[in-house]
Amino acid sequence: MKKKISKIDLSLISIPLLSVLLLSCIFLIFPNESKSFLVNIRSEINKYFSSYYLWVGILFLLSTLVLAFSPLGNIKIGKENDKPIYPTLKWGMMIFTSTMSADVIFYSLCEWMMYMGEPTIKNRQNPFEWSLTYSLFHWGPITWSFYIMLAVAFGYMLYVSQNKKQKFSEACRPIFGNLIDGITGKVIDLIAIFSLVAATATTFSMSLPLLAQVAKTLFHVGTVQTWSLILMAIIVMIYLSISLLGLKAMSRFSVIAFSVFGLLLLYVLVVSGGAQYDVNAGMMSLKNLTTNFISLALPKKIGSFTQNWTVYYWSYWIVWCVATPFFIGSISKGKKIREIILGAYFWGLSGTFLSFIILSNFGIREQIKGVLDITALLNKEVSYPVIITTLFKSLPNYQWGLIILSAAMIGLYCTVFDSITMVISKYSYKNLLVEENPSRKMRGFWAIAFSIFPLALIFTGESVYNIQSVAIIAAFPTSIVMILIVISFYKSLVDRKKDSARRYLGN
Q1: Considering only 41-50, 196-205, 460-469, which range has the smallest mean pLDDT?
Q2: Which three-class secondary structure state does DSSP give residue 336?
Q3: Is residue 480 packed enough to be buried (19+ CB in 10 Å), middle (13-18) or exposed (0-12)?
């Protein structure tokens, strides 16, 4: 036990914890001033760095394609005789459930609503079709490239370079060398932890109120804030219990979570009776996405829509990149780089695209048919959670739909936070070998710590815009570290090739 305690990096625990407590107090005591601060910082980032975020996305996408379709794709993550840890089906489920929190359900149901007030969408000939097109774009190849590129880099670091530490900063060692053991590495790891705090705050703050509204609707008692507290406690207990049981339990739970998520999509598709419309609308949106991809990714004029939404989404995915890619890399031992990239794209895009095509079109159909005037509710400033639960009430035996919705959201919450709790706990040690796991106390600490800041945001009633701003601000330094990790990865490949050439000439 003493050996474990001596390994803990107290600065990587105390500084983030104190900062989170301080930020939470500031948001609770000075809500108006904190909102103004977020708005001003986000405005400056949008003004000067919107193009930067867009180009980072393009570069990561191109990098994964180069790796997948070049001879570099044949490099195995591990030794030549290593076999994959998990069968392909379970591996794919773990990738999706460890990266997609309950946000994918929340946004699938209401992102198209968020776009309807944007001139970019309203001025289109078919605004509903283009709202879905932009959703698929924002949850499409570019955003998945962030995870996938870093997953390959982390997998290479763990199983090929065989670094002796499990830290975010270790992926930068090829270009910084021994500086990673000093203040440089400390700063990188602190950026990673702060970024993950912002990620969890954004995720919980956006979608937990929906889960709370569903519980309130089902039980006809309590407030959204009360249910948010109760559900947060339940989610923390579940994912902490699974995390303590280890990777085997996590892999089994990911299958359950994936299955319940699939059940939700099947329920909405069948019960709402709109399969034909969903297929047609989905195909048209995919066509729009394919034929307009370049103009969507690099618009000639960066207007308010791009700054409000595309920059936000790239930021949203970037702040998650400090943990989920590390987890994907750790479960991908024995696979070739090409298999990881193409497999992750397949599972990731299949899950997100199906979710948006089915759940978004459910609401769009009800709006077009006049069953529920969602745009009128939005004009009255009715909250998204209330609109979504009202939408489900249009279905026969809607209580079952809300129960499945709740189970799917809790399942995805737990699988994502299983993985990030495990990863961030590993970052909290000075030295932790690949074969070692963090202590249960460490995982318990982070499970609770991650719930503090999002609860502060929920109880201060932060708007969607201000919650998004937290992610955008945190993503800026994180994106710089991500670029350094990619450069380090390619340097490792070059160094490996040089070493092979030297050994060949020596023989």
Answers
A1: 460-469
A2: strand
A3: middle
Give residue for tokens 């003493």. 2
Contact 18, 449 (CB under 8 A): no
Q: In the chain, what is the straight-line distance between the N-terminal and C-terminal CA atoms, in Å?
A: 47
The angle at the Cα of 27, spanning 38 to 8, to the nearest 5 degrees, equals 100
CA distance 478 to 462: 23
Q: What is the pTM of this model?
A: 0.88
Side-chain-side CA neighbours of 28 within 13 Å: the count stands at: 13
Q: Can you read off the two tokens belonging to residue 77?
A: 């993550």
> Cα–Cα distance between 97 and 344 in angstroms, integer?
12
Q: Which residues pair with 336 in a beta bridge?
A: 76
* Nearest one of 190, 134, 152 to 341, comparing CA atoms: 152
Show the tokens assigned to 34: 């904190």
480 CB-near residues (< 8 Å, 6+ apart):
none
Tens-place pLDDT, residues 378-408: 889 899 999 999 999 999 889 999 999 999 9
pLDDT in tens, 245-268: 766 777 788 888 889 999 999 999
- Residue position matching structure tokens 């990863």: 423
